[in-house]
Every structure is written in structure tokens, then in C-alpha cells.
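Progress narrative, work stream C.
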Amino acid sequence: MPNAKECLVFRVAMNHPGDTEAVEALIDKGQVEAADIVAIFGKTEGNGCVNDFTRPFAVEALKTALAPRLGVSRAAVAERIPLVMSGGTEGALSPHFLVFAVRSAAPPVPRGGAKRLAIGTAPTRDFRAGEIGRLPQIEETAAAVRRAIAQAGIAGPDDVHFVQIKCPLITAERYAAALAEGARPATHDTYASMGLSRGASALGVALALGEIAAEAVNDEVVCRDFGLWSGRASASAGIEMAHNEIIVLGNSAEWAGDLVVGHAVMEDALDLAAVAGALHLVGITPGRQLTPVQRDRIAAVLVKAETSSDGRLRGNRHTMLDDSDIPATRHARAFVGGAVAGLIGRTDLFVSGGAEHQGPDGGGPVAIIAAAT
């Protein structure tokens, strides 16, 4: 296997949204080369809503930290490395960064066709406000997912286990500009636009992976027909974006290293059996809670969280949709984060709220990256 590649994943703490010290330490101590970093995910402690400026704050801090280490301008950092910040660490969720790096690896000992963690990235073009939450965003996302799969050397959709997307939203300024151009965006509600953007992005993933047919998607199904969904999409909307950033995670025989990724779909917010299923796929059999040795094998836990639209969870009424003070996505992150943390035994989990078309109503995908046995 000449020119084999290895994907490395580092999970490091974040003391505040502008704290990049742990990321810088990885580079300065020689644990990873700055030039090998291909993506950074971040869970920041903001509200995860339209005005969550912890996300762009973290992005700017990362650009400032990485620019001199890469020998490029701050602007060039974001063009080179997808910086995907997801706001909201409600409950006991811990702010943290996930640093993904790719380095050359010596050809590994033949392992009978076993596959290892592979990563591919691709951006879309910038979207106009009138395209967000509509078919152009779906189709452009699908095309970018396919490019990322090809870049990663992943054999096909069956080997894709998680697709992380950072997508834009419609601000009041963008809405006004669209009207001035004679276009009418899908919504004037900036908060609602987050869900539409996430939903269209997720449908793009579903389209690329063959989870839905091309004829099933149009402007009218976005955030209306929730029978259409992807079991591997995770989309997070932010004010700092104008385009979609796509990161595909899967397994490939072309990659070396000891990390693998597996996924399952939570049917609802209490579906820890699905989390256990994802753990089994990476060779971990959980008990009541993972042992310290099992936890040490895990590099990342990636989860989507959503409230059920009927206001019930396994027959019991919940009030997450009726709270006028706290958006339902914040409740969902805290609830699902707590449930999953109870099984994993740690709180630095990448739990993202807002799962429109990302798993069934009230559920969502979960993926585990861990060292193979």
C-alpha cells in the first residue's frame, strides 16, 4: 500500500471560546504538524442561536493561532482548513476542539482488507439568501459530499459514517439585500432560517449517499416532509458562513492507522441502544458505563440532538417546545448530552442541536471514532 495516509484525531479542552492554547500546544510539542491539520471542530459555550458570536470568535482565534504556524495569512487559514464551530454546551457538556490531521504513513502490515478512518473535505460555493433552505443548497451540498468522498478514497456511500456540515443562515441584512435584488428568501425569520439551512444541507447528504431519490427533493419538502432524512448527516448553521463546509468521515482500505469510525441512528432522545450499537461497530462493548480503558480508546463522540415535534417522548409529554425562554435545540443538546455522557462516562462530546432531516423525528445520528482492537 504505497503512499498510505493516516488520519489522526486530537480532542483538547477549551477554557473559553478564544482559547486555542491546547491546539497550539499540539503543534508546538510536535504531536501534530500544522500543515497536516485538515479540519477542526469546536463545541463553544454560546447559545447556538443566530447571535452566538462564540462561533466566529473561536474561528478568529484559530486563524490567529494557525496563520504564523502555517506561514499564511489569517484569511488563508479558513480557505485551507474547515473550521466548524457548533455553539451550545448546555448541561454538563464540555467546550472542546476536535483536531483532524492527515499524515503520510508507512505501508501497514496487511490486515485482510480491514479499513481505517478516512477523511475528505469540500466546500460549496457561496449561497445567495434566496437559495438557503432550497433546492440549490441541496444539490450543491450533494455535489460537494461526492467530491469529499472521492478525495478521501472512500469506496462508496456504505463506508461513509458521518458527514459534518457547517452552513449559513439568513440574517436580517441578507434578507433585505435579497429583496432589493428582487428575490424572496424562504423565510424572514433569522432563527427559522437556521433550521431550513440545516435541513437542506442534510437532504443534500441524503441525496449524495443514496438515502433518498433525486425526484423526492424540491423546495417544498425542506422542513416539511420529515419522512426524508439522512442517517449520517450533521449540520450546524452559523452567522459566520456564506457557503457550506463539508467534512466526510468514513473507513477505507486505502488508509492506515488504528482509528475507525462507526455510526448508528438514535430513534429518539433516550435511544442509548443506538449509541451502544455504534460502540459495537468500533469494537467496544459497553456495560452500564464504559470503563476507563474503553473510554481511553475513544477519540470522538459525535451526536445530533432534536426534540420530537409532537411534544412527547415515549408517550410522556415534554415542555421543550413550549419554553419561551430557552429554544428547544438548547434543551435537546442538554438532554441528549446528559444521556450519552452517562453511558460514555465523559462530557467532552460533540453534541449538536437542530436535527432537521438528520435522523427520524426526535432522534438523530451518532458516530464514534475509536482505536480499533
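Work stream C, second folded protein:
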Amino acid sequence: MLNSHWNADHTYAFSGEYHLVLDTESGRELSRRSVRENVKRWQYDETSKTWNLKVGVDLGKRPRLATYHTNIVAGDWHYFLSHQLNAVGRVNTRTQEVEHLDVPVQLAVSSDGTRKEIWDPTQSIPNLPINSRGIDLTKDKRSTGTGWGHNSAASPILVGRYLYFPVMSGTVYVIDTEALEFSEKAIVALNDLGPTGSTWTLSGLSYAEGKLYARTIKEVICIQEMQ
């Protein structure tokens, strides 16, 4: 349940906790790397409001480490949203280095535009999958969550140097793939597609002629530079 990425030489995949590099022609496995053992983690501290680099971290036993459908290759890196951490992860396809960058699990936006970053998943605001006609389209309780973890999130896109990761709650993470280090400096923006709790989406963004397009359960949105 992950996206397929390959080039003339290599195919990249996840299997459980492992990142795999395969020969594109033969399918032969060339390398296998755990994305939980001996990794770098830029860990957020809510008390100091800062990120701290931890090296050689073991994230603990987990059956899988990537949220469904959220992986994408950009340059030498294979990016993904973590399955159980609220973090953007990446694996270097040449060196097999693994890094995780903590991000808020949700950007809470009220109807008056007030914004609040939520870091604790247990404090996230329930998200209702109700369409523009007031119909609840799913009875699966997981669909009222953020989109991180067991449920799925929309697939990311790459526009120029920037990755756009939307999740089910309407929160969008923008990551600079050319940042010199995978710290908070790589987080270009944290935005929303509408009020939290009433903005539900499993659609990826698309790009054309300088505009980004998004689709939620209620509407189609065009995002462009203000004239």
C-alpha cells in the first residue's frame, strides 16, 4: 500500500520496517535497511520549542514505519510520513542513511483563522468526513483521525525543490528537498486546506501554471500567489 518509484537502474520499496533497493531489470535485492534502527532523529521538545538532533536512535519494535501512500523519491532521498511517529522520514538511496524530522501531527485552524500546532496525537481534533450535502461518507472511526498511521493519507507531490504532504485533516506540510540539513529548517511551511474538524481529504495536490489545486470532501481549491 505504498507508491511505486523507480528509475533506469533501481526500484525503491518498503517492506515492513525495511527500505529496499532492487535492480530494475532483474528484480534482485541490492540493499536492505531498517528505517527504525540506528537512525537520526530531529526530535521536538515542547517545553523549549526546539528540535534536538539524536544520532544512533532505535525507534523500537514496530510492524511498519511508513504511513500508507505517502512515500516519494526526490533526488537521492526516498521520503515518507512515519507510521507511528509524527515525523517526516527519508532514506538516502545511495548511502542508506535514515533520518526522521518531527512535525506537528495537526495544524488546528478555527473558523476565525486562529492557528495552533498540535504535537500530541491524543490531543488532535476529530475530523468529520461529511461532504457538501451533509452526508457522512464513512462509518469507519479511523476516518475521523488525522490521517497519520494506520489509516492512509494522500500521496505527496514534488514541485521544483518542494515536497507537499497533505494529510486527511487538511494539514499540509511543505518540505525543502534542498535544505542543507534535515532539521526544522527543511520545514518551509505548515498550512491548512480549511477549518480543522470539517476539512477532510484523501486527495493529493496537483500543480499547473503556477497554481496548486486541492480537493477536499466539500470543495475544489486553487492556491496561487496574491497579485
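The chain has a mean pLDDT of 91. No further action is required on this item.
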